[in-house]
Design goal:
75% helix; 92 residues; Serine Threonine Protein Phosphatase 5, Tetratricopeptide repeat; mainly alpha; single chain
Length: 92
């Protein structure tokens, strides 16, 4: 279920439906068990992109960095993509 929510959130982001993306990633975050080290950082990455879409760079950077660190620690293939995304965020 959580993986489907991640994919749906991505679609909403692509369609600029930020409100729906936010709700979807928050639902994902609420339904993923905390010990699931694969899906939790994906939800955080989704919420980081939502924060960026709303112009909240500080939250986007914080959530993206947290997601990246977890993905890197578990050796997940998405770690590099998240790291690159965080590096593209404006510094101010």
């Amino acid at each position: 279920m959580a993986h489907l929510l991640f994919c749906l959130g991505d679609v909403y982001l692509e369609k600029q439906r930020i409100d729906l993306a936010s709700a979807t990633f928050n639902e994902m975050l609420a339904t993923v068990p905390r010990e699931n080290q694969d899906l939790m950082p994906k939800a955080l990455y989704g919420l980081a992109r939502v924060a960026f879409a709303y112009g909240d760079i500080r939250t986007a950077r914080m959530l993206g960095t947290k997601s990246y660190k977890t993905l890197r620690r578990i050796g997940h293939y998405m770690a590099w993509n998240v790291e690159q995304w965080v590096c593209t965020l404006p510094t101010k």
